[in-house]
Specification:
heterodimer, A: about 160 residues, alpha+beta, globular, B: about 725 residues, 7-stranded mixed sheet, about 25% strand
């Protein structure tokens, strides 16, 4: 067991845990934020996607000891009021069905858009192929990402 | 906060309730007018929570923006399963039965609000009407908000008769509404069963026997118990009760070893450190191929028909028959692969038991916890959550029985039991296996004279024979025969129901129809139309007859929207498939290109008749999802077994369709004359396979009769 410091959604935490415990379980069971989901445990489905210093990672496969001083952002911290362009587009286009994979989809898409604000269709589809959706909402996810890119383009930069 | 008295709903639904019990009504109205629709079915992605709220809110004359959805705990007395008015969710049935119940309930609540306003103003209730979340006085034009009336309304006499809205007055029903649950989903706030938290809760996983019908011989937990956080290791043999002989039910518990401790991570590591020896039993040396060979032999057994039309022996009538055509098709076992792994949190106390989970059938959980542990039914509380996919798997109550057992063995501590994704692959129920044996006879004029179909299936809900008793198709063939044989005693995989259920195998008939069209060298679309007679209803032994007219409408719609008959390049082709499901109808056209064994599905076009469409956005989402469901089965499906064990351990080996492999899906609804809705959750799921297989034949001349098809997928791109 070890005491590990980490920052999740801007808040500092000190957790006492097995250093091999994946970030996913620290977030869910110790920090207590359950928006990040367990799907496969081997980085194959993307349901557990969070950001480490803005980069999308599969939190099921990142030992807590490897997080270091990188800042963790989960779906709960993506925006302060649920107004991220992706969150708005997801609602407008009625994307989810069961919703279980969608936090991971949105976190993956958010990292994609932050690197490529106006991605090509290919870049969206290849960039999102790591995120499974058993309900089959891929077409709507695709359109919502296009829509969010458009919202981004229309929002004057601050 | 005001709650409408339960008896208001009792009158409107026919459900029996204790009049003093106000928990679990269909609505709570807050003093500020906020409406909390009490959602008592199971939301697992099919969008039913929003659709049900639309029906209720429209009859209530509520402002949709002020309606929220609440998930109350199960109450089996309040919400009885009679005519699916209860919690039970499955079979694409909910909207069918809830339509009448919720319209009456909404109208009853509206009438009580009107009566309350009339009393408030001291006028006759006929002088008042409800509109946009208010009751309006016709004479004075005064208005009063629902929130201000709720307290008085809740104690008004229950109207003996209520009048439903004219359908032309609907404001919410029939409009595309985004799911009410999305804000919670996109902020990570919506709680699923796996997110349940109980103070002091431990975690547990179970290493279940990887071979169906196998048993636990012994285990060594010495390494497991050294892992920090692991508290206790014990077997599930006391609750395991697999019946080797039919009819067994799929919720018998498989023998295994529980690892319980203070974190999921500790118990998962503990599970990996277990040394277990299993007695693998009769399936320990068998593989999928052995099972399929056994089924192939049985397919040729002479059996008696379950049902027939005309002459049951017509295919072998030498005086009429010029030529016969035969084919066999296989739809193998499949995994549900719910994105939310199975789980249940349980807390046994000296008074009874609480469980927290997403379930399609709370009544089965209550009856099983009562049967296995003798908890009085009244002492069992099922806390309902939405789930991350159900697809039929969450109909079975095994996870609650396992979790309650673990809680009791831990000395009545609360515990969250989770299936790891590896457990999900190695020891889970699978979709039933189907083998279809077809034979048709053409007469001397090349007319389709006789159809013979035999189904062999590994799960029948303990029924002796299949239902419906003849194929659910509208083709006008003078002689039709259906034979059935169950495979239950020889099962290799624990079989259960999977989205689309028996439709997957039985609508291979749409491929066989294509084979006949090819034999006759006629266009498959025109061939189907030639066999369908407008206005003809076919009785197949199911609740609803199959309507030829509705089949024709969805077929035409899909064909027209897809541009059926347009010129195709070499290596390209279109295929179609059509079916009824419950009392809904669906036609699908697949457009594909095949080059060097590489398949590109360019587009899927769908025509749907589900009666009155409650929510066009949600309904289209279901059709899109059903197509993706079938394409996963087509490309990657199956549950391969070697020496009794699943060969696929997780999603790196069991592949599901991904975004870049998913084709554009174009959904169209038939403008329906029906004044009521029919089911939508499953209808497209059996059709992607036959439509694409027919398209592959059109493109290549190659007939494939089993999934997965073994072609490489080349992605196509969505249109914006």
């Amino acid at each position: 067991m070890a005491i590990i410091q980490l920052t999740v959604n801007g808040k500092p935490y000190a957790v006492e845990t097995d250093p091999t415990m994946p970030l996913l379980w620290v977030i869910r069971d110790i920090v207590g934020l359950t928006g990040t989901k367990y799907g496969c445990g081997i980085a194959q489905c993307g349901a557990c996607t969070v950001h480490l210093d803005g980069m999308a990672v599969r939190s099921c496969s990142v030992p807590i000891s490897a997080v270091g001083d990188k800042k963790v952002t989960t779906i709960e911290g993506l925006s302060s009021n649920g107004q991220h362009p992706l969150q708005l587009a997801w609602e407008e286009l009625d994307v989810p069905q069961c919703g279980y994979c969608q936090a991971g989809q949105i976190m993956n898409a958010a990292a994609l858009l932050s690197q490529k604000p106006n991605p090509s269709n290919d870049e969206i589809e290849m960039g999102m192929r790591g995120n499974l959706c058993r309900c089959g909402t891929y077409q709507r996810i695709f359109r919502a990402i296009r829509k969010a890119a458009l919202i981004n383009a229309q929002t004057p930069s601050k | 906060m005001m709650t409408f008295h339960a008896s208001a709903i009792k009158l409107s639904t026919g459900a029996i309730a204790d009049d003093s019990n106000t928990i679990g009504d269909f609505v709570r109205i807050m003093p500020d007018g906020g409406i909390y629709f009490q959602f008592v079915k199971h939301e697992m992605g099919q969008g039913i929570a929003t659709a049900m709220a639309q029906i209720f809110s429209d009859e209530l004359c509520a402002d949709w923006e002020r309606v929220k959805i609440e998930f109350p705990s199960a109450d089996l007395k309040r919400y009885q399963n009679d005519a699916n008015g209860g919690h039970d969710t499955g079979g694409s049935c909910t909207i069918i039965y809830q339509w009448d119940i919720l319209r009456k309930a909404g109208a009853t609540a509206r009438q009580m609000l009107v009566e309350a306003a009339a009393k408030h103003w001291d006028v006759a209730s006929s002088a008042c009407y409800a509109q946009s979340h208010m009751v309006i006085n016709r004479t004075t034009g005064k208005r009063i908000d629902f929130g201000k009336l709720a307290k008085l309304a809740a104690v008004m006499a229950i109207p003996a008769v209520v009048s439903l809205k004219e359908q032309t007055d609907f404001r919410i029903i029939g409009k595309p509404k985004t799911s009410k649950l999305i804000p919670g989903m996109v902020r990570g706030e919506l709680k699923f069963g796996i997110d349940a938290k109980v103070p002091g809760m431990l975690y547990a996983v179970i290493a279940r026997c990887p071979v169906f019908k196998g048993k636990l011989t012994s285990f060594d937990a010495s390494q497991t118990l050294k892992i920090p956080g692991v508290k206790k290791v014990f077997s599930t043999q006391p609750i395991a009760g697999l019946q080797i002989h039919a009819p067994y039910m799929p919720y018998d518990i498989r023998e295994g070893v529980v690892v319980a401790g203070d974190s999921f991570w500790a118990v998962k590591k503990g599970q990996e450190a277990l040394k277990i020896s299993w007695e693998e039993g009769i399936n320990g040396t068998l593989s999928s191929q052995d099972f399929e060979r056994m089924v192939e032999k049985r397919a040729l057994h002479k059996t008696d028909p379950t049902g027939y039309v005309g002459d049951e022996n017509a295919v072998s009538n030498v005086t009429h028959v010029r030529k016969t055509i035969r084919a066999s098709y296989v739809f193998p076992h499949q995994l549900h692969s719910c994105m939310e792994p199975l789980n249940c949190t349980a807390h046994v106390t000296d008074k009874g038991c609480d469980v927290w989970l997403g379930t399609q059938a709370p009544h089965l959980i209550v009856s099983e916890l009562n049967r296995v542990f003798k908890f009085p039914e009244d002492s069992i509380k099922v806390h309902l959550f939405p789930s991350g996919g159900g697809f039929g798997r969450r109909y079975y109550p095994d996870m609650a029985v396992e979790a309650a057992f673990i809680s009791r063995e831990l000395g009545n501590l609360p515990v969250k039991m989770i299936w790891t994704r590896e457990d999900d692959h190695q020891a889970n129920l699978g979709h039933l296996f189907q083998h279809l044996e077809y034979q048709v006879a053409l007469d001397k004029e090349n007319h389709l004279y006789a159809w013979y179909e035999k189904e062999l299936r590994s799960y029948t809900w303990a029924a002796k024979y299949a239902d419906p008793q003849i194929p659910a198709m509208a083709y006008d063939i003078p002689n039709i025969r259906f034979d059935f044989e169950d495979l239950i005693d020889d099962e290799l995989v624990h079989s259960s129901a999977w989205r689309g259920v028996v439709g997957h195998g039985r609508f291979y008939s749409e491929c066989f129809i294509d084979e006949i069209a090819a034999e006759l060298k006629v266009d498959p679309y025109q061939f189907r139309l030639s066999l369908l007679k407008e206005g003809r209803d076919v009785f197949v032994g199911d609740i609803y007859p199959v309507s030829s007219s509705r089949i024709i409408r969805v077929l035409r719609l899909a064909a027209e929207k897809a541009g059926w008959g347009k010129k195709m390049e070499p290596g390209e082709g279109m295929g179609l498939a059509v079916c009824p499901y419950g009392n809904s109808y669906c036609g699908v056209v697949a457009e594909v290109a095949v080059n060097d064994n590489k398949l590109t599905i360019k587009k899927m076009t769908i025509g749907v008749d589900c009666g009155k469409v409650i929510n066009p956005s949600g309904a289209a989402n279901q059709i899109e999802g059903g197509i993706v469901w079938s394409l996963t089965a087509l490309m990657y499906g199956g549950y391969p077994i070697k020496n009794g064990r699943a060969t696929q351990r997780n999603f790196h080996e069991n592949k599901l369709l991904r975004m870049d492999e998913c084709p554009p899906i174009d959904v169209h609804f038939v403008p329906s004359q029906d004044e009521r809705p029919w089911g939508i959750g499953e209808i497209s799921s059996p059709l992607g396979v036959p439509a694409v297989l027919n398209a592959i034949f059109a493109a290549t001349g190659k007939r494939i009769r089993k999934v997965p098809i073994g072609l490489e997928v080349v992605g196509s791109r969505f249109q914006v």
